[in-house]
Amino acid sequence: MTREAPVLPFSTAELLSQQAWLRNLAATLVRDQAERDDLVQEAWLAALRTPGLEGKRDLRQWLGAVLRNRWRSERRSDARRRAREHGRAELELVPAAADLVERAELQGVLVRAVLALEEPYRSTVLQRYFGERTCRAIARAEGVPEGTVRSRLKRALDQLRAELDRSSGGERRAWVLALVPLARLARGRQALASFAAVAAAAIAVLALGWAWIGRTERISTDLSAATTESTPAMGLDPAVQEPLRRAPLSVETADASRSSALVASARLELLVLDPENQPVAGASVVCGADERKQTLRTDERGTCRVPDQSWAESWLEVSIDAAGFVHDDSSIARGTFSWSSPFPITLRRAVALEGRLHDADTGQPIEGGVLTMLDVRLHRLGGSHGRILDRSTSGHDGSFRLEPAPRGCEVGLLVTAPAHAPTRRLIQVANAERAFVELALDPGIELHGRVVDALTGVPLSGVSVFHGADAFGYPVSPDENSIELLRSDAHGELVLRIPRDQEPLDLTLSRTGYCCQAANPRADGFEVALVPSAWIQGTVRDGEGNSIEDAEVTQSTSRSSSIQPPSDPALARLARARQLPRTSQTRSDGAGRFLLEILPWCPGYQIGHRIPGRKLELLRIDDPLQPGETREFEIRLEPAGTIAGLLRINGEPGPGRVRCRAQGKEVEAWTRPDGRFELRGVPPGRVAMQAFPDEFERNEGGAVRPILAEVEVAAGQTKSIDLDLALPLGTIRGRVTSPSGKPRAHVKVWATAGRGFGYWRTVTDAAGYFELHVPSEYARYDLSAQDGPPVAVSPDAEEIEIVRAGTGHVRVRVEDAASRTVIEGAILFVRRSTTQWDRWGALPAGTNGFVQWEREAGALELAAGKPDAGYPAAYVGKFMLDEDGELELEPRLEHVSPVQFVLTNPPLPEGCGILLETLSGLPMVDEDSSHFLSLSEGPASLPGLASGDYRISSSLSDVVVEPAQIRLGADRSKPIEITWHRK
Description:
Blueprint: H1 12-17, H2 19-29, H3 33-49, H4 59-92, H5 97-115, H6 121-130, H7 135-142, H8 146-167, H9 172-187, H10 195-208, H11 225-230, H12 238-245, E1 269-273, E2 284-287, E3 294-297, E4 303-305, E5 315-321, E6 328-333, E7 343-346, E8 350-359, E9 370-375, H13 377-380, E10 387-393, E11 399-406, E12 410-416, E13 423-428, E14 435-441, E15 445-453, E16 464-467, E17 483-487, E18 493-498, E19 507-510, E20 516-519, E21 526-530, E22 534-541, E23 552-555, E24 579-580, E25 585-587, E26 593-598, E27 605-610, E28 617-621, E29 630-636, E30 641-649, E31 652-653, E32 656-662, E33 665-670, E34 676-682, E35 685-693, E36 709-713, E37 718-725, E38 729-737, E39 748-752, E40 759-763, E41 769-775, E42 781-785, E43 791-793, E44 800-803, E45 807-812, E46 815-816, E47 826-831, E48 838-843, E49 851-856, E50 858-866, E51 871-881, E52 886-889, E53 892-893, E54 899-903, E55 914-918, E56 930-933, E57 940-942, E58 948-954, E59 959-962, E60 965-968, E61 976-982
């Protein structure tokens, strides 16, 4: 069926306006200047030949499609031409007589070797290479999995290589060189005269380990060292030749009863990449913790293999250092990767963050300011305050230097300086060779207070005041990354400075023997009362009374716990204070002893305990402990036995999860990479054993796994057993490219078998190809690449092509509309196809105010603002970011006065909140278009609210607030009055 060319009427001026863009697109497809000009001319000719050119707006898309189609057509023509020329050249080669004799003898050896193969290998080889049938066709005809056919071919290949080695006296180079001409003929699909010649040519391909690249099947195997060194170039186009010679991402799918492609020798390979997805060679990789530490180096491909001894039971600690990059700490959990694929870790490029401190009122430089740079990646995910990257002190001119800072990423800066309020800023480090930021510090307001013992009122000296809160404002216990701001003196006195117009920092106060407490002082003469900790000490023993070393003991507490002190009026305010113990977990020593700090006055407290191989078990303490009390507590485990053994997956020892169920309890453990496992704490009696590969652990979703064995377990004894898991496998193969046809190297690709049934992932190789081995028990998989939309595929899908957009550059400079000065710390918001805005970071003022990102090409909408400083988010526009293109924007923001909200009939019902939501759809605070008003302690003032319509509602269904909707204008002198009533 033919399709008529679309009528796209464009004006001549419009056509000429696209000339530079079209040349740039051509440059991404071909290197030769003459070929680029030809492609552009073909596009112009197509436009001129199109009837009726006026009115439509999709000119660039149409021209790009014409140019790309012409480029693909030229590629196909060139490939066919090269194949014809190559074939003629091969036929014109006339070998010497001695070579013909040697080749004929080798043909006979090959044919006899094939005929001597045992079944089913012989018939499989004959059908595949003599009958030219695909693996899929052979599998369908014989009623076996396709993986079984591939396994047979692989084993036949190994046997043929061994026979040729033997017949050549162990000289592999000799028979490889003799087979090269035959393999060339087979690669060219030449019609050979005799059956023997056909046999020799076909088997030569098999024996040399090359693969036929056909329309419906692409198999990649390794070339031997001799082949790589001695085989002359075959005249293939580089874009086609590279996939043939790449090392496979994983081993071939194998017979489900004999071996497993999921195992891949159970040696995890790390792939270290730079932000452009290029390998980082020579990086220092430290794997494991404590006595398991091993130091490795990445090779020229950016990879290194993790040794077995580096692994803990279920995770791997990895620290990476490379010249020009920021130090990276990662924790790789079992179940989040596939053993048969490299695990990618992307490093961030390093740059020095330079800047200057000055007084916000006088503009004078600040000397002696202490700056701490924090990695806020975990902080934004709800972790702690962030890992410290570097510290610096400002000089006499206020200048400072922090390094290494992650280029193009967001960091936190905590600044303390004499006579100034501590300041916390989120800074977007410029994506350039030099990053600069100007920081104005608020002198703030000086507050005086003290810290006392909550029970006695005695002042406490030496209380440390930390900046400590997670991304949600909850206190966190001090650790090695905590930043101490000051300490109480001998009289328990504290002198703090808080900002005049901004929220003060969330603080955590800590002293040995007392619970940590969060504080946010706002008035002079404040007092913070610390509660003495309570303690539980005891021993962990097994069912026979033997002490257990290294058992984990933890207290089950939320990040913000409510204690219930006595009804003493002096202690009433402690009921609302945010408290937490200084430590949340411990481990038993060699004698099984432990000491755990807990919160006092907490009814129904729970203590958790865990030993390797068992899940966390909770014990409830109904009788609250008093402050300073230490209670003796013994954790006695039930009589139990141990099951130890080996897990084999499809015949090969491999890593996985082993589980047994007995008496309503589950005991499970990871195997080591070599398949060895030990289940401790198994209840006595007959137990059922299950196992599954790592990838099922991510979210098994309650799927029922088969029972592999049943064993009788006795208390105090160890039962040995080997488990064999048969898992039929399929292979999903494909390629990831950009819209222009460029291969996308080192892109993450993953497959899921429906919700909660497993998770398999890999990365594309240098030519954009990927290969995933997945269980064939599921009929459908959702395949995704680089956070793109999923594609439904079968477990044996091949030739899958996923098109993911390349990247372009975005440069932004945000200014104040009135002064035309750069707004330091302005926030950029972006969204694509969804209604949710994504926060890109706080922009530094920099030397010229521009900040650059590299982002995925395509349509995107942008907004910019700094609400907390009085600049509401403003819509910048909708743009098309071209692949390898650049988008430069200079939005200007209007400063507005804050708006005050007052509750006319306080207080609100308990648990009720007031929600303010903008109807413009633009973000108000961070990425959200709504904000909760805190009116329980008086009026609330919100800066950075744009003029427009807002909706007001309550969080309780039976509480109504009025007005339900307001309109803000330029006049903000009067507060917004809010009234509530019940329905």
